[in-house]
Design a protein that fits this description.
Elements: E1 3-7, E2 17-24, E3 27-35, H1 41-45, H2 53-57, H3 67-80, H4 86-112, H5 119-122, H6 127-137, H7 145-160, H8 181-209, E4 218-219, E5 222-223, H9 237-268, E6 282-284, E7 287-289, E8 297-299, E9 301-304, E10 312-315, H10 321-326, E11 327-330, E12 367-370, H11 379-389, H12 392-405, H13 415-445, E13 461-470, E14 473-482, E15 485-492, H14 494-499, H15 510-515, H16 527-535, H17 540-544
Antiparallel strand pairs: 1-2, 2-3, 4-5, 6-9, 7-8, 9-10, 11-12, 13-14, 14-15
The structure holds NI-FE active center (NFE) and magnesium ion.
Length: 560
């Protein structure tokens, strides 16, 4: 007899996600992923000046604070064929990379570590032994016995109050929790430290972008970041020095703490390299442009089908016609009017709410498809694409981690593989932030001080797509412009690719497919399902771009 279970809401994610699944013989046999909120920012954009779109579009989300701004401005630059000077590309690259560092630190420690780490067990740890374990992993200065003793005392005092707050409804003592008290204490201490380090990365983004969340420094054809090393009101020597020190501190944390913790936890939960694979078609776009024409990129992108790295199609830039025309979104099982799947240039956002109908419509997420196939996006896709393309840095890190863990590269297509590839990506992002800062300083020293190409809005009809490899995967914004006003606007977001429902052929999306086959030791406490869902780093605000808790239509948005 199968048993139907609903988890609503899934906590420790961004937004409102409901997961339904059936358990048969201790394993998940079927699953449904349902986004429980709807936003309608695409509709707010219609009729507006496309040069303003990035400011509105980045309000899709406050977690991936910058990515929608980047994608939006790129879609306009793509539509009008506008070049972006190198200085501006480097400023944008630093924003992207530092934002990723912040996002990945928060995801690993604050949103997912407690699926693996038992805080209550940490209370019985020996701080001295904990320090020995931590020091065997790295020479990070925060790993002292005194430090761990202080954290243990803090946690004990906290638990004694009887008010566990955010730790209140964890699955402490669950049979699937396997770490020793000492490793639990080490991770708990790093969880607290991580709060400080994510803030440093956010601060670096704010220096470049004027504020965070939601940067203010983009413009069509470049950035509006005033750069003058000798002026007190601009990005100057003092700001650059501060940024360099923030970036160096977070790089050390990511390399010496986060990365080692993920590998250590991975090595103690090795069976999780076998669960959670799900959809094994992958997409990542090239990222970090290093020239004004967007022809040279620092990280590779491409498409992998059926999990076979030899079956890899490299994408060399963001103008790939087959990619652009191959993307469609199905709304057969989503709370929108349905028709044939549509390419986003022709996409619509017409809500049609029905309640949760497992065989009908059951989510606010559309189902994106590439050449008719579901696709998984995210750090696994980007790291595997870079690996398949032979990017040296990525290849070296992947090979070394796999040999340390005693796994093959293909085992990264899994629940734990998502964490490990995200940890690898964190290190790369931290390194690249400093690289782009050096490149910017070099370019300025050469006398190139241009950071925007001024462009007027032309008359006539234009369309453009802006791709970006965001922390959760490939993001694209699609705009159609008519006489200087937006005629259509669609976003196909990483969490839409991953959280999307079945399509018109009944083929499940990545979350749904990945949960299938997971063990469930205790159906009342489905920790194993949550582990796999969290490994994607869900962001539902992004994915469906006014919450109505009653589930009623709330489409009455006034357009200027
Ligand atoms: Ni709201 Fe996002 C990222 C985007 S959604 S967090 O990364 O784009 O997947
Ligand atoms: Mg969309």
């Amino acid at each position: 007899m199968s048993k139907r279970i609903t988890i609503d809401p899934i906590t420790r994610i961004e937004g409102h996600l409901r997961i339904d699944f059936e358990v048969d013989g201790g394993q998940v046999s079927k699953a449904w992923s349902s986004a429980q909120m709807w936003r309608g920012i695409e509709k707010i954009l219609i009729g507006r000046d496309p040069r303003d779109a990035w400011v509105f579009a980045q309000r899709f989300c406050g977690v991936c604070t910058t990515v929608h701004a980047i994608s939006s401005i790129r879609s306009l630059e793509n539509a009008l064929n506008v070049e972006v000077p190198l200085n501006a590309q480097l400023v944008r690259n630093m924003v992207i990379a530092q934002h990723s560092v912040q996002d990945h630190i928060v995801h690993f420690y604050h949103l997912s570590a407690l699926d693996w780490v038992d805080i209550v067990s940490a209370l019985s740890a020996d701080p001295k032994k904990t320090a020995q374990i931590a020091q065997s992993l790295s020479d990070w200065t925060g790993n002292s016995e005194t430090e761990f003793r202080a954290v243990k005392e803090k946690l004990t005092a906290f638990v004694k109050t009887g008010r566990l707050g955010i730790f209140g409804s964890g699955y402490w003592g669950h049979p699937a929790m396997k770490l020793s008290p000492e490793v639990n204490l080490m991770a708990a201490a790093h969880y607290l430290k991580a709060l400080d380090y994510q803030k440093k990365a956010a601060q670096a983004v704010a220096i470049l972008g004027g504020k965070n969340p939601h940067i203010q420094n983009l413009c069509l054809g470049g950035v509006a970041t005033a750069i003058n090393m000798d002026n007190e009101a601009t990005l100057n020597m003092e700001r650059v020095a501060l940024m360099r020190s923030l970036m160096t501190e977070t790089r050390d944390f990511v390399k010496k703490v986060l990365f080692n913790d993920v590998v250590a936890i991975g090595s103690m939960y090795k069976e999780w390299f076998k669960y959670g694979r799900g959809v094994d078609n992958y997409l990542a776009v090239p990222e970090f442009p290093l020239d004004s024409k967007m022809t040279k990129f620092d990280m590779s992108g491409g498409i992998i089908n059926n999990g076979d790295l030899k079956n890899f199609k490299k994408l060399t830039d963001h103008k790939d016609a087959a990619l652009i025309s191959g993307i469609t979104e199905s709304t057969k099982h989503a709370w929108y009017k349905d028709d044939e799947p549509k390419n986003p240039f022709k996409g619509e956002t017409e809500p049609m709410y029905t309640d949760f109908e497992p065989d009908g419509k059951y989510t606010w997420c559309k189902a994106p498809r590439l050449d008719g196939r579901p696709v998984q996006v995210g750090p696994v896709a980007q790291i595997l694409a870079s690996y398949a393309a032979g990017d040296k840095e990525v290849k070296a890190m992947v090979d070394s981690v796999c040999s340390k863990l005693g796994i093959g590269v293909n085992d990264l297509q899994s629940t734990m593989g998502r964490h490990v590839t995200r940890a690898i990506r964190s290190v790369i992002m931290a390194d690249k932030s400093l690289l782009y800062l050096d490149m910017l300083m070099d370019n300025l020293a050469k006398g190139d001080s241009v950071y925007a190409n001024h462009t007027e809005m032309p008359k006539g009809e234009y369309q453009g797509v802006g791709f970006h490899e965001a922390p959760r995967g490939t993001l694209s914004h699609w705009m159609v412009i008519d006489d200087g006003k937006l005629k259509n606007y669609q976003a196909v977001v990483p969490s839409t690719w991953n959280a999307g429902p079945r399509d018109e052929k009944g083929v499940a999306g990545p979350y749904e497919a990945s949960i299938k086959g997971n063990p469930v030791a205790d159906p009342e406490k489905p920790l194993e399902v949550i582990r796999t869902v969290h490994s994607f780093d869900p962001c539902i605000a992004c994915a469906v771009h006014s919450i109505d808790p009653e589930g009623k239509e709330i489409t009455n948005i006034r357009v200027r």
